[in-house]
Amino acid sequence: MARSSTSVDVAVIGAGPYGLSLAAHLRARGVEHRIFGEPMGPWKTNMPLGMLLKSYPWATSLSDPKSEFDLKSFCTVRALPYHDELMPLPLSRFIDYGEAFQARYVPAVERKTLIALEPGSGFLRATFDDGETVRARRVVVSIGLHPFKRLPHEAAHLPVELCSHSGKYGSLEALDGKEVIVVGSGSSASDLAALIHERGIEVSLVARQPKLHFADGPRRHSLFSRTVAPMSGIGHGWTLATCAKYPQLIRLLSKDLRVRVANHRALGPLGGAFVKDRVVGKVPVWLSHAIRGVETHNGKVMLDLVDSDGAPRSIRADHVIFATGYKVDVNRLGFLNEALLRRMQLVDGAPELSAHYETTVPGLHFIGPAAANSFGPVCRFVYGTHHPAQHLARHLSAVLARFRPALQLRPLDRTVSP
Ligand SMILES: Cc1cc2nc3c(=O)[nH]c(=O)nc-3n(C[C@H](O)[C@H](O)[C@H](O)COP(=O)(O)OP(=O)(O)OC[C@H]3O[C@@H](n4cnc5c(N)ncnc54)[C@H](O)[C@@H]3O)c2cc1C
Predict the structure, then answer these.
(1) pLDDT of 315-336, one tens digit each?
(2) Which of 10, 285, 296, 386 would you call most buried, defined as having the most Cβ atoms within 10 angstroms of its Cβ?
């Protein structure tokens, strides 16, 4: 195991759409940095193969410094089918695009995991799973949603053979030959139910909601409807359009309002438009059913349900998948040292951020979904990569230039090969 100690100006933790976009902008500005993580990691291992993205293709590009490599140009050059909004974007194509982006703009991603982050004097000390310790003037955490999986407390005691979170799949092979229940009503629940059913596995869906909601199918919007409810990269309507375009304005709102906006009603559980016909009428669905308890019996899992009239029902299966979402809570990040956590002010579990995405711990920044309670719901989507990438790269380039000798014309680009 390597046990070296090195220094760097900026350490970017995470190589998903947010980390890759930021690294591309840092590189273009000649800011010394290193980036860690598995390129497009959760997209490759935690989302089911065959999934279709819910966001419009035109709103699903990473941010590059010259705005020259969006998803559309990637598909055009490779003669791949593409339409801004009339066709869905398959997960595999988005992964290919992200990896092509990484090869072109961020060639030196280091595939290692941050295991500890501690305060130093004028720097943060980051320790990785290969034993290397890096002293970084700035650390930008862009680790996405997957560390924040949410399971209902009723399931806490279940063994992993009987229960999992939707964020585990990847491949569905482990479910072959089993009888499965999916709990939830959002896009992960409907995507998984459709894909499991199409694999020939017996599956049913249990939801608290009285109805499953799906996004509208692709259609041309009239001038009137575009005026009343303008379309944005994260949904329809003036509120979401403003959030999508001006994330920096959201910070000016009160904490309560910011949290409400970050969890905007219109962004509640919603299946993708293209999955509706693959679920409705095909997969047995128990609507208006809440979970009262979960038991195990003879190697099976039993869900003890109650409907909206109070009538009880029990259903059982070999495995239950909780598609119950994610909730950002930095206290769950094992790598954050106690001293850092004590100094970090939080808004509903997420770090309170300055205009430069900096937490109340100097030098520690968060971007991506963990920034949503400060910069609004756009941070929950790939569409939100542009503002932090452009803004933070400019800011870090300016503040770190102060540490450079006056005669040095261009800071060293110390990216390291994988
Ligand atoms: C099922 C599902 C479907 C979605 N569909 C869409 C969609 O259609 N459109 C859309 O815009 N958004 C969608 N999202 C939201 C989207 O996933 C996030 O907004 C986006 O991935 C956030 O990007 P990110 O770069 O912050 O994190 P991620 O893409 O999650 O990448 C996280 C990175 O952090 C790294 N990492 C994690 N922990 C560590 C560590 N300790 N040390 C080092 N590296 C680490 C990982 O290896 C990875 O490189 C979906 C989310 C889910 C769960």
Answers:
(1) 999 999 999 999 999 999 999 9
(2) 10
Quick one: tokens of 89? 């974007």
Give the number of other CB atoms < 10 A from CB of residue 200. 9
Ligand 1 pocket check: which of 61, 85, 115, 145 to mutate, most ligand atoms within 8 Å of Cβ?
A: 145
**41 CA distance to ligand 1 centroid (A)?**
8
Fold (CATH) for 5-148+326-401: FAD/NAD(P)-binding domain (3.50.50)
Residue 379 CB–ligand 1 contact under 6 Å: no
Residues 395-412: pLDDT tens digits? 999 999 877 665 444 444
For the Cβ of 376 lying below 6 angstroms from any atom of ligand 1, the answer is no
Q: Is 325 in the pocket of ligand 1 (CB under 6 A)?
A: no
The CATH number fitting domain 153-214+270-322, selected from 3.50.50.60, 2.130.10.120, 3.40.50.150, 2.115.10.20: 3.50.50.60
**Is the Cβ–Cβ distance between 288 and 307 less than 8 Å?**
yes
Fill in the DSSP letter of residue 234.
T
